[in-house]
Amino acid sequence: MSDLTIFAPLAGWVMPLAQVPDPVFAEKMLGDGIAIDPVNDALCAPCDATVLTVHEAGHAVTLRSTEGFELICHIGIDTVSLGGQGLTPQVQAGAKVLAGQPLIRFDLDYLVRHAPAVVTPVIVADATRYGVEPIATGLVAVGDPLLRVVPLAAEALVAEESGETLVEEMTVALSHGLHARPAARLVEAVRRHEARVTLSHGERSASGLSAVGLLGLGLGHGTTVRIEANGAQAAAALAEVVAFLSDATPEETPVEAPEPARGEGPGLGGVPAAPGLAVGPIHRLTRAAIPVETVAASAEEERARLTDALARVREGLVLAAAAGGARGGVMAAHGAMLADPTLTEAALAGVARGLSAGVAWQEAIAEQVKVLVSSGDRRIAERADDLRDLERHVLAALAGLPIEGPSVPAGAILVAEDLLPSQVAALNAGVVAGIALVKGGPTSHAAILAAGMGLPMAVAFGDPLAALEDGRVIVLDADRGLIDPEPDADAQGQARDTIARRKAEMEAARAAQGPCRMADGTRIEMFANLGSVADAEAAVAEGAEGCGLLRTEFLFLERATAPTRDEQARDYQAIADALGDRPMIVRLLDVGGDKPAPYMDLPVEENPALGLRGIRVSLADPQLLEDQVGAILAVRQPCRIMAPMVASLAELEAVRAVVERQGGKAEVGVMIETPAAAISADILARKADFFSIGTNDLTQYTLAMDRGNAAVAAGVDGLHPAVLRLIGTTCEGAAKHDTPVGVCGSLAADRLAVPILLGLGVTELSVPPARVAAIKALVGKLDMVRCRAAALQATALPSAAAVRAHITTMLQEIGA
């Protein structure tokens, strides 16, 4: 029956409860149902229902459908211990919701890094009255039929009342209160006794056999509960419930992301946000207030004013986003925030209550800022700046005022309490020397923009920075997060000399459109990693000699169907045109693992990083591979084709066979991302035209450390000697067949890694466009004899830290 269908509350991969890594759900202690491993960022209502409870930690919600059955939706495993971080409820208890309406929004990236699992059980709670029949398998979208609820003619299995009712009041000692997992265990405990148990808190009561009812009591740590038990085993049941609720053993908490390292040394210590060095007088920024009309006209007029202002701001953000680059990305993020119905609906609701458009917008922003700031996660809290930025833009639009960027004297260091992203984007990087903030965060959009503009920036200096007067000359070392508030003439001179030297080296490298060479004349190709036409244009401007990695995922993700061959060919051609006659290496589709494509029927995997991903996905879908190879071969300029995640010669031969079948003569190479490929490089080199080492995956596979797992991510360092030895093995195997070796992973852009890579035998580096000139300048200062000696020593050191210290000393010796 359609009126007893539960629809998917999340987009993601369906799995049976038995596979959920928690016995409370896997053993169906709370009831029967199914689970979804999500790929989106919102839990939506699975049916028309009334919200019974929203847990204070924001990770779970209970519902009663209009047909009467009760549901539990629980985001992730052990997410209660996150204390609400990364989770933002959109509804309150008592609300009536429609199927598909957002219930809880969540930061999927944060949950993946901080919770044991993000798989989300969807449970029909009363297994004595309802059964469930799964409908969906594989990948589902929000609103797809998920479960069919089947009413059962079940008999009530309740203990007959007899004898005296035993009563006890107590304080709940459970560290996180009575959330889903302990509620399920409590129900199991009560079921073991012939007794009727009721728990009461305030005016609410619940049977000890109802997990949903128990959750509805809202029994947090330290709350008082009244327990009543009646029946043949009332005393034993009461004693077990009391003992259970008295357990104060702390529950396991997730690993927190480390705080950013503060600068250590003389002067003021802050947090590095964008690299560089600056010297100059302080120019303190004060943010001008925008006038807000507090007296409202009619609700209709205020609604029209707000709607018009939102439309104008939205149009401006769309234009800014279309420009691409870091600023375009930030403006696109602002556009997504502005499109959030939670924000606009809250403002319109304020207008309906009689508020002016400006005041209603301020209240809506303030409420969302409060949610982000109270998350307890600094990276989420930093997104509040984006909301404040949107607030100013819309208020300015309502007032008919332009948003102007800060006016900063040439050579000054901009000092402010904080900066909004739009204020940073409006700065002239050729005028401003640097940025230092009293507050701010290193992962904020303001910091991202500053880094993309080449503006040195450090943040979180606190009151000591606020106390410095305008006009005082300071030295800002944004690499280390330090300010020298009283530099003497020598210190200022040294800083200016260093800045001038670095600038000259960058300009020379940028201007040198010819081949990149080491100081001894050794040829090193300097390529760029690309994902768009804008990237290609930026790379050419920075002096890149070609594209060492074109990520084709941008064509395949965030869409409902696979791109056609013609669509792919058109986009590849546009990037090739931007590169001119420079070579372009196109990586075949690399999805699976942490990059699922919604329209691909990829299986649910216990460990996706070791499953169907990279070239394995393309080989499993021959038509997809044929279309992509055909599109690459259709580009007018010759392209090289690179297969990702290759682990055997057979995979390489299969790709080459497709190229030959389509009559192409493109070079075919492989990414070395697995230890298997590195160790057997001499075998792969028999058929490969080139290698490119993906150091990110090679590192995590070599060290058995997931770079997305916060508990171990700090140890995932590509300069670990074991990784360096595999890179050396790759170069040795390639040399036996004269196969060139490049590096397109993050090590290629790491100035401490470059000497080692060149010393091991790498002949091509591919880096983000913004790093091309800097790495090209560094290569020009190195000679092969020194690099080979450094590589030999590095592979014999005991740790990545020791390698970094060794190379730091070496670069200091040569003035690099």
3D architecture notes:
There is one protein chain. The chain is an alpha/beta fold. The protein has 29 helices and 34 strands. The chain has an eight-stranded antiparallel β-sheet. Strand 33 (741-743), helix 26 and strand 34 (764-767) form a beta-alpha-beta unit. The longest helix is centred in the middle third of the chain and has 24 residues, at 299-322. The chain is globular. It starts with a strand and ends with a helix. Mean pLDDT is 82; it is low at 154-160, 252-264, 375-379 and 708-714.
Mean pLDDT: 82
Helix amount:
25-40%
CA-atom Rg in angstroms: 30 Å
Shape: globular
Count of helix runs: 29
Cα distance spanning the termini: 72 Å
Q: Can you count the beta strands?
A: 34
The structure class reads alpha/beta
Task: Please render the helix and strand layout as text.
Elements: E1 5-7, E2 12-15, H1 23-26, E3 32-38, E4 42-44, E5 49-54, E6 60-65, E7 70-74, E8 87-89, E9 96-97, E10 102-106, H2 108-114, E11 120-124, E12 130-134, E13 139-140, E14 145-151, E15 166-171, H3 180-191, E16 196-201, E17 204-207, H4 211-216, E18 224-230, H5 234-245, E19 268-269, E20 271-274, E21 277-284, H6 299-322, H7 325-338, H8 341-352, H9 357-373, H10 378-382, H11 384-399, E22 413-416, H12 421-425, E23 434-437, H13 445-453, E24 457-459, H14 463-466, E25 473-477, E26 482-484, H15 489-511, E27 525-530, H16 533-541, E28 547-551, H17 553-556, H18 565-579, E29 584-587, H19 615-620, H20 622-633, E30 639-643, H21 649-661, E31 668-672, H22 675-679, H23 681-684, E32 691-693, H24 695-703, H25 721-735, E33 741-743, H26 754-760, E34 764-767, H27 772-779, H28 784-794, H29 800-813
Parallel strand pairs: 21-22, 22-23, 23-24, 27-28, 27-34, 28-29, 29-30, 30-31, 31-32, 32-33, 33-34
Antiparallel strand pairs: 1-14, 2-3, 2-13, 3-11, 4-10, 5-6, 5-9, 6-7, 7-11, 8-10, 12-14, 15-18, 16-17, 16-18, 19-26, 20-24, 21-25, 25-26
Helix pairs in contact: 6-7, 6-8, 6-11, 7-13, 8-9, 9-11, 15-27, 16-18, 18-20, 26-28
